[in-house]
Amino acid sequence: MYYKSKPYKLFSCFNYTFLLALSMLCVIPLVHILAVSFSGKAPANANLVGLWPVQFTFDAYDKTLANENFLRALWVAVQRTIWGTGLSMLIVLLAAYPLSKENRQFKRRNVYTWFFVFTMLFHGGLIPFYMLIQELNMMNTIWVLILPGAVSVWNMILLLNFFRGVPKELEEAAFIDGAGHLRTLFHIYLPVSLPALATLSLFAMVGHWNSWFDGLIFMTDHKNYPLATFLQTIIVQQDFSKVTVRPEDLVNISQRTVKAAQIFIGMAPILLVYPFLQRFFVKGIVLGAVKE
Amino acid sequence: MIWTMKKAAAALLAGAMLTSLLAGCSNSASSDGGRAETSTEFYSAKFENGKYVEPVSITTVFPIGSNLKFKNGENIENNVHTRWAKDTLGIDIKYLWTVSDQNNAYQTKLRLMLTSKQEMPDIIAFRGDQTLISDLIESGQFADAGELFDQYASDTYKEAMSQDPDVWNPYIRDGKRMAIPVLDNAYNNDGVMYIREDWLRNVGMEAPTTIDELEAVMEAFTNGDPDQNGQKDTLALSIGFKNNLATWMSDAGWIFGMFGAMPNQWNEDADGKLVYGSIQPEMKPALAKLQDWMKKGYISQEAGLYDEVKASEAFTAGKAGIIVGPYWMTGWPLQDMKANLPGAEYKAYPLPAGQDGKVGRRGTSVNSGAVLINKNMKNKDAFFVYQNYLFDHWANPSGEGPFTKGFAEGYDYAIGPNGELYGEQDSDKIEGGWVDTIRYTLTFDGAIIPQLRINTLAKIANGEEAVTPYEKAMLRSIPEQIQAAKIVIDQKDSIMMNKFTGSPTKTQLSKGDMLDKLEKEVLTKIIYNRASIDEFDSFVERYLSSGGQQVHNEVNEWYASIHQ
Amino acid sequence: MHTSQTSHAVTDLVKKEAPPAHRGNWKRMLVLDAMLLPAVILTLIFAYIPMGGLVIAFQDFKPWLGFARSEWVGLEHFQYLFSTPEYVQVIWNTLIIAAMKIIAGLVAPFTFALLLNEVRLSPFKRSVQTMVYLPHFLSWVILGGILLDMLSSDGLVNQALGAVFGIDPIFFLGDGNWFRLVVVVSDVWKEFGFGAIVFLAALSGINPSLYEAAEVDGASRWQQTLAITIPAMIPITIVVGTLSLGNVLNAGFDQIFNLYNALVMDKGDIIDTFVYRVGIVDGKFGFSTAVGLFKSMVGFVLIVAAYRLAYKLANYRIF
Question: Are residues B97 and A220, on separate chains, in Cβ contact within 8 Å?
């Protein structure tokens, strides 16, 4: 067993240490931000908080969570994430399959592929997009949050590459058994592509959950803001060069702590979902075993 | 003024007049505010007892700032303010859309609205980037607001507007005033010098009044262990010039003011022409000073990397001993400092003078934004009915008006069991908490008479008795703020206002960024001693020849055109 | 991937046997078209229709005039871009920073995935994977402030450098070259965990029997890595790398905007920050759209080039 050898054990030791250090490096800033989120506003604003809260308080979370709009925004976010991810995955799945075929099998493949890839690079910008959404009467609906982003070309390309790695024999066998493309896709390709699908769903979910700009621009009623947009509304603008300042307002600014709390509230669900998805990254899902 | 008109008009009113009286009024050559007493056509709709008999509607849009709070299930479309407008004035305010005021969302949406042929609201109030207002004006959809103002504004409103004669400048196109300035408190961002009193005591010095004294204090603050902790961990002065040298907080503009210069803006020279501050010869000695101070460690190495807020942290965390900023800093962030450093004391002082006794302070414009009136608005006078009322009764209420205690009882004030007045400080005694209802108004702050606030605070600082409701309200400000406000007023002759408020000129559009970058790079390098002070002269030459001269000419063209 | 084949994944992909042609093949092909239909429709609507707005790049666009009535200015915006003295500097900075990011952004997650793959203790593996993924959620607004503090003359990093190596404080964010390094390193730090996910997924798809066979053949772990693991990751690396080429002129606006200052303009100013500043003074949509179009074209050309290269040289279709 290779891992029993001396040199490997040495390497393993370094490896574990290195990875631990790396993880710490990634987590420490977050610990700091977490501490800020639980700190009093005075020390936070003066940047006196280290890795532990100074003047412990739930204030920042109170401000955010107790806000009546929070639950509403949360619900909007949940909806868009679930529907958005579901729809996107379905479309990507259906599209990646044909694109993974060879030219000989599917003559128009190249045309389609470039058709999609082109859109990854060329965009008309916000103005024509806004006009389109208006024309389609999609303003202020959940559709504007779900439909435009549904075709994720990046995900399609990743998935088609994964599909290409599936042994041809499986497809052959299915075909001989009389299965059509759809059947093959859902009964053969799908089960063996779980790591890929888990990965892509994760990307899609994170994207939806953190997306705030579309909510801001396309929702005319702020009751319809998704969570990410809503969290931004709690932040007080700190540029006073243009806006009139009424000194009385300033007493209550606690920008830093609220911003910090905002990050964690935004992160929390993803943190909950990720371990669940990690299960799919199980090593060596048996691909070839079926036929050998 | 409305009341006297009303009596006369009511007598003559006969039937509803929905005809566009504006066509009638604006065609007559000699229109000024007072001509309207007898005309039934003054108001575009039947008007009686100070209100429109049949409610007249005003459509608008609104940015919802995070400091906008509602209670009792209200929202921006339906609240104590909208009800007041309807009941008291007969004006029905309708919001076509609202957006959370962050990340320039309001501005973006207004721009998008222009593209998409959406129905434009009757009134657009906007504070922020000039370019958006310019675009709105250029779209040609808005009326000659200046004319309307002359015609309909009340005396109080007109008086407030005239406190700064330059206030219309940014909105003048072809001699016409196309948008009405939204008036703000005067001197709102003018700086005073805050110094750590306890540090002064510890090093045994007095607050500086001249540049030499200042340098002595700075030396002590940097090397004399003013916080008495045995470590050399202090800075003298906190400035943050990542964005600009002369700015609204953690300002360094006053340093240049001591030499008669003011960077990042256009100043009037002896011949009445406008010149760009950052390239004037007076800048040189000031830059040399800053360079020197950085070498000596009086200012932080990071000063050029910090923006205004980040730089203020040094002061509130107790690392720096001097900071220059507005009088309202006493509320924030300096209140935080008190919380963080028990025993720390600060006091506001006048800005020090240079060798020739010069004091220069960056001025704040009284105009923070504008209101645009749609050409197609049916009842344009309604806006003025609304705004006049606020100016007459809210801006500086006298004795017995409707707003002497606040905007709405149970919202921004309440009356206690013994008749005491509960205000913002007594939020817990007001059911549901104190809510700043004036923020709901069309122009974001109701009506502000520019000089009023600072003058009142100075009055109080002088020990005069508070008589009017406004003065009494100001009494509740924290003492440090009152004191700081007094200093602002005392030094008001040292103000150097930015005189160029027009839209960017042609060359500014094409070469502006490059010139700006050049300026920032060179000035910063000089301060950081990466370039010698003599490079300033070659910089000025380069600046002028790369387009700076053209900009100068264009700016002066504009200036001349404004003063016809 | 069969045990019978040598495990060179690339050649594996190259030597695909074509399925025999069948009668009714065209009917089967129609099914494929049908499967693509939803994606095609959505793309047409939400991507291609708005693309028409690219004409703004050739107009002096005024929102209230719309596309139809705004003045046509042809290539003027492009001319402006290439006539400002700054453009060379700005484009060059963008290229350098973006190139560094693309390379580092491939190497780091790749290496990390390899290293993590060697961890056999599952809870440890999962925890590490989760922790390194977290920085992705931070915004540059917050990170900017943190970095500013950490990298200041008396900040953590300089303190450590002084204590351990005795080096004088380095003005990281005030020196052009260090600035670029900070930008790349901090970006890699932020994104490598997220980027590694794709590689980890690829790794989990490797047939364990391959390793067993190699073990039997007496290969050391390193040899196994070279022969099995790395080749399995190459295809996905090529895909990710090629697609990143599309970003060759996107050096990261948010990050640079929050970190840069006058002292590092010469080395740190990128196309996007430049366009942003110009846009503040003059809300000209035409110019920013033109620049965007320029960036897209360059990126597209590179992707096409990479695609053809891969095809010609290795008969490998990246997508």
Answer: yes
pLDDT of residue B365: 87
Which residues are B406's β-sheet partners?
none
Is it true that the peptide bond before B333 is cis, omega within 30 degrees of 0? yes
Q: Which residue has the tokens 């020279």?
A: B269
Burial A249-279, CB ≥16 within 10 A → b, else e: bbeebbbbbbbbbbbbbbbebbeebbeebbe
Query: Residue with structure tokens 């606006």?
Result: C253
Give Cα A120 to chain centroid, integer Å. 18
Taking the CA atoms of B303, B304, B308 and B310 in sequence, report the sign of the dihedral they define.
Answer: negative
Cβ contacts of residue B456 below 8 Å, gap of 6+? B470, B471, B474
Pairing of the two strands B91-100 and B56-64: parallel
Q: Which residue from B139, B305, B530 is facing C64, i.e. has the nearest CB? A: B139
d(CA B557, CA B560): 5
Q: Which residue has the tokens 């979910």?
A: A205
Q: Would you tell me how many other CB atoms lie within 10 Å of the CB of residue C84?
A: 17
Q: Which ipTM score applies to this complex?
A: 0.87
Q: Which residue of A has its CA nearest to C48?
A: A119
**Element (H or E) spanning B368, and its range?**
strand B367-373
**Which pLDDT value is given to residue A79?**
95
Any idea where the domains of chain C sit in the sequence?
2-69, 77-314
- CATH numeric code, C77-314: 1.10.3720.10
In our burial notation (b when 16+ CB lie closer than 10 A, e otherwise), range B68-77 reads bebbeebbbe
**Residue A53 DSSP class:** -
Residue C137: its chain A contacts at CB < 8 A?
Answer: 210, 263, 266-267, 270
Contact criterion met (CB below 8 Å) for C103 and C215? no
pLDDT in tens, C17-27: 445 545 456 77
Angle among Cα A261, C136, C108 to the nearest 5 degrees reads 150
Q: What single-letter amino acid sits at B244? A: N
**Which chain C residue has the Cα nearest residue A131?**
C50
B49-108 residue pLDDT tens: 888 888 999 999 999 887 788 888 888 899 999 999 999 999 999 999 888 887 788 888
